[in-house]
Amino acid sequence: MMAGWVSLCFVLASVAYAGASVAYFLFIGNGSERASTWALRLVGAAALLHIAFLIGDSERHVQLGDVRQMFTVGSLVIVLGHLIAQQRYGRLAVLGAFVTPVALLMFLAAGLGHSVPDVPEDVRSALLPAHVFVNVLGVAAFTLAFAVATAYLIQEHLLRRRQLSGLFTRLPPLDVLDSLGLKLLLIGFPLFTIGTVSGAIWAVQLPTRISPTQFLGLLGWCVFAAVLLLRVAAGWQGRRAAIGTLLGFACALAVVVGYALRAKTGAM
Amino acid sequence: VPPQHLLLVGLSHHTAPLSVRERLAFPSAEVPQVLGDVLKRVGLAEAMLVSTCNRVEMYASAESPQEAVRGLREYFGALAHQEDLASHLYEHTGAAVARHAFRVASSLDSLVVGEPQILGQVKDAFTLASEAGTMGVVLGRCMNRAFAVAKRVRSETGIAAGAVSVSSIAVDLARSIFGELTGRRVVLVGAGEMSEGAAKALAQQGTLLSVVNRNQERARTVALACGGEARDWDQLSQELTLADVVITSTASPRYVITRDLMQGVIKARRHRPLFLIDIAVPRDVDPRVENMDNVFLFDIDDLEQVASQNIAARKREAEQAERIVEAEVLAFEEWQRSLDLTPTLVALRERVRSVVHGELQRTLPRLKSLSEAERKSLDVMCDAMVNKLLHRPLTELKKSREEPDGSALLESVRRLFELAEVQTTPESAEPAEPAKPANPALLPTRRTSGEHT
After folding, report:
1. Chains A–B, number of C-beta pairs less than 8 Å apart
2. Looking at residue B285, what DSSP letter applies?
3. Given its phi and psi angles, is residue B433 left (phi above 0), alpha (psi -120 to 50 degrees) or beta?
4. B427 neighbors B1 (Cβ within 8 angstroms)
5. Spatial strand order in the sheet of B46-51
6. Contact flag B305-A162 (C-beta cutoff 8 Å)
7. CB A237 to CB B313 under 8 A?
8. Where are the alpha helices (DSSP H) in chain A?
9. ipTM of the predicted structure?
10. Residues forming a β-bridge with B276
11. What tens digit of pLDDT does each residue of B10-47 get?
12. Angle at the Cα of A99 (from A93 to A104), degrees rounded to 5?
């Protein structure tokens, strides 16, 4: 079992993330500066507790292949990534409303999942830790890209509907969202590619057939590849690129959920 | 220095048409001279003149505000050479002056509520008056509070949020699409006055401008005025391909930017976002263009709708601002009452003390048998009597400061103790310590004197 203080860190961090999510939604709703300040404070506190939990928990799970621990790392990367982006570009606080709940879900999945012998001994491989690690980083980048794309679509909708007060004034400019989305794809895609390739190499060594999770992972990779190609080669920008990003993220999220369920049931 | 009361005489866009306002407008170079002049002629203690295209107002303080208001009305009347000027002038005295100053500085009294220029103009007027030596403690305090109130209103309400002119709305919308505008390309199609204003506002953000117009001469003139380059009419589609923001305002009765033209342009632009502002009536841009990917089209109706939404939002925020102003006016009134109060407190104590000690001095020569120590005891006893007698009145007077009609009690005390000649000098605004007895060690302290003896 987890040590007392580690469990405490987990519970407090979860509560702080939940509180921050609520505060971010309040900020989206009414633009209250107080809500935004509190959201930032809560996320900061949650991230510190999160790091403490990671350190405490890693005493039991040293190897990188542990899905639970990867979820812990992944959600932390998502939160820190958002904080850094907010610092650099300003006016991105609103994105917290999309990013923080995703991070919270991953964090909860990590903490509440059974401490599984996640991968059977006979199929362990040296590739496995690298495979999980880069995939988690890739998913973290795609989560941020998803938040940015969602914000883009909302902002564009408001602009076309002439709803130019309230939320519209709290979201970043369209072009900033669009280019930030591209950057995040450019970071996430190579990681996801390495993850997918290493997964494929590992999978072909197994006697079992390709699982739905692996299929979705491959589909997600194809979607992201298509979006990136169209963006870079055909100059896709704006709405189409944002929708493509959402589709790719849906696939990536399905993979994550698949692994979370597997971690819980112990099934492949 | 006799007690000074605030007063104000002036006119603004609320009370006077431009034809009247321009007769009374003062160039800032003349203001110091006017201030010196008005101080002497009207008999003011302090004076400050705010003169903008929307208002001319003399803020002042004087011993007798009603007289000073009359004097200022005559002064303005003589300057404007206008018979019926009096009907355009308004006047305020006392706390109403502070309220007016706070509202003006906060831009609550402006033609466009929330516009930022007025605060700077009032600050300039304050500087001019300070340099001319016509700014004193009372008016100075009032104006400094006005600047603080304006700052509070700005930071605590959304009174200045949301653009209300076509030019600034165009800039705001362009920013919400492109973010930083430096280096973005703006194309002016046709060269009306309103589009020129919008182009200038965008140019201030560091955009590059080109002007496409059927009349080359006009294109060059506008390009020169806004710091851009003129282009031939047949370069229109090429310019549209390069542009980020397009402002159209031709007099053409048909669409100038048709869907067919735009389809070619869109292909060449490869999905780059394009912001079209059509301020022409009849419209220059086919409205179906709006449905194209990454093309955002706003016509004059859209812009006016944004403006009216923002104006309505500012009005809602103005109510909140008025509440801030009222709270600050109350605080200012309290400060003014404390100005009146302190000299009275000092004078009252001095008066009673001088009576008691006067009687003691007259009696002492007849009490020759008293030793030095006994004389001192008598001295101390007198001080204690003064303190005990005055404890309650002084406390009540201080308390009255927080009450709305507290000045009535102050007046009564002045009459009862013949303090009418007591002057409320701003310089003595600091609460004065009561006169110290010869040997403080022999006396209970002032605060406890009422309870002990």
Report:
1. 54
2. B
3. beta
4. yes
5. B46-51, B55-62, B5-12, B90-93
6. yes
7. no
8. 4-30, 33-58, 67-89, 96-112, 127-160, 167-170, 174-204, 212-234, 239-265
9. 0.80
10. B246, B297
11. 999 999 998 888 888 888 899 999 999 999 999 899 99
12. 125
